[in-house]
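Memo to structure team: turn this sequence into structure tokens by end of day. - J.P.
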Amino acid sequence: HQPVEHLMSLRAVPNLAVVRPADANETAAAWRYAMTRKDGPVALVLSRQDLPVVTEPGAPGFEQGAYVLAGGDDAILLASGSEGSLALEAREVLAGKGISARVVSMPSWELFRAQPATYRASVLPPSITTRVSVEAGVTMGWAEWLAGGIAVGIDRFGASAPGELVLSELGINVAAVVAAVEKQRK
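Reply from structure team:
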């Protein structure tokens, strides 16, 4: 079967920091974090696909578990791992429709959850209630960050085919993210 449930299974393990990097910069930061964490184990969840580099060198903000990749005031697009580039693509499409979307890279829920409330609110301002998460896995758990928004994910077992084709066919694509934003703004 396709491992759509594995991320949430790992996130349910007490004291395990689960990290799903968006690109090479976040992967390097995740490796440094894994080698220096003293209060528990780290699970690095890496992609098999080639990923574009979407973060700054050193991935500033990585240590906080989530940070703003691109600013916007009308909607928030939260992504982990390889879906970071997809969220940035959706942001461009939304901009063409007059919607200013913030893209948040969220490599580690556990690290983000441990941050002060003021930091979490600076990344996910409560005033922005149009929110969409995108992750190639089950949508369970994303409600914690969505404030009633929409989770784009896979709540059934996947399929076998090239990664991009499977994701597109299962609704993990730019069109689905854009549609989820537009649905909330009606």
